[in-house]
Amino acid sequence: MEMTAGITSANEGLDNVSWNILGQTYVPKQLSDSSFSWHATLPAGTFVPPHIHPKQDEFLYILEGRFDIWLDGKEMAAEPGDLVRLPMGIAHGIFNKHATATAKCLFWVSPTRRLHDLFWALHNLGPNALPSDVVAVSAQHEIDFLPPETEDH
After folding, report:
1. CB proximity list for 152: less than 8 A, separation 6 or greater
2. Which of 23, 63, 88, 112 is the right S-S partner for 104, CB 3.0 to 4.6 Å?
3. What is the CATH number of the domain that holds 88?
4. Domain count, the chain
């Protein structure tokens, strides 16, 4: 699919879509074969566990709050205005460790591959999905979560 020209309004997603992915809100902003972007809101205490995109580069542009990033075994922090670069094949996790503050960012991946379809699948699992189901569905869509015993969090 080719990218369409135009503007996606600040308060809207493509086709008015908004996903609930395990308590986080993802709003798709742009979709084509070559890239996919979405606005993400991570409430206090939520996270995306360490995982690998074997066939995509991923980026986060921080808009609000602080993100604690686990990247290839190293801890780092990103704040508004920072760009986080997550090359394909390198394990990473994204955390909002703040006790009360929401964190927001613009994510994008290149190329899109199966990530858009994964977000629909995870949204459809519901907010109380079993971790094992999330891991299995993600693996079917080219995202590999690290086993819990390898996490240092």
Report:
1. 70, 73
2. 63
3. 2.60.120.10
4. 1
